[in-house]
Amino acid sequence: MKKKNNTAASVLSAFLGILAIFWVYPVVMILINSLKSEKYITTDSAFILPDAASFAGLENYVQALGAQGFATAFGYSLVITVSSVVLILLCTSMCAWYITRVHNFLSKMCYALFVFSMVVPFQMLMFTLSSTADRLELDTPFRICIIYLGFGAGLAVFMFTGFMKSIPLEIEEAAMIDGCNPIKTFFSVILPILKPTLISVCILETMWLWNDYLLPYLVLDRKKYTTIPILIQYFKGSYGHVAMGPMMACIIMTVLPIIIMYISCQKYIIKGVLAGAVKG
User: Fold this and answer.
1) What would the mean pLDDT of 100-106 be, rounded to a whole number?
2) How far apart are CA 157 and CA 272, in angstroms?
3) Are 179 and 225 in contact, with CB atoms under 8 Å apart?
4) CB neighbours of 135 closer than 8 A, spacing ≥ 6?
5) Among 81, 200, 270, 275, which is 20 to 30 Å from 245 by CA?
6) Average pLDDT, stretch 194-208?
């Protein structure tokens, strides 16, 4: 039996290793081509490592930083991501606390609606959402966080609620006896306990928001506001042609912060997901 288990584990490891190679391969190819001159990217040389003739150094990265308002697009993406993540974490954690501690029809219905929202395809409501955002003047990087709150609340409430059920009620009762009102109890007692799930939700929502293309494309005025994914989509060099080298460099500079963040916080993601899904 032990030999069979070892064999199964080896087969599974080999399969996951091959799958990881397929996932990493596109990123590696983009990184390699971001270091090449333009003419070597659009030929068969795109699939080989750069040599003395094709190596362009950091030229593509310099062009990407100085072309088409990369800094502005980066700033808008940063504003959208940070404001949306903060709003999602604050509102959904408080909502999950209410759902967990207040047992009535309203709380059960709210939880059911949040879970249901996770399975509703975005394509079903994107056109209605676009017109609604225009009417409510949510079509700027400083207000679109309200829309993201609606889309990100389902997963966040689900994870927070699962973890919240494991927190003993006696801790909150002790805080109330010491004179804490509900707001102070939440921020002083509950929020620090939620740290593993807070970090997990923060990372997952950040990865989604930073890389999101469709919602800003539909809602924002692209003549005024351009996020990083939209900039990459319409990246053009001199004379209006697509500059493949700088575009590859732009992709790497966009993806790298998220990859570093995910790798450095991976243990918190696993801990928070398990806590939200298993406990309670």
Assistant:
1) 89
2) 13
3) no
4) none
5) 81
6) 87
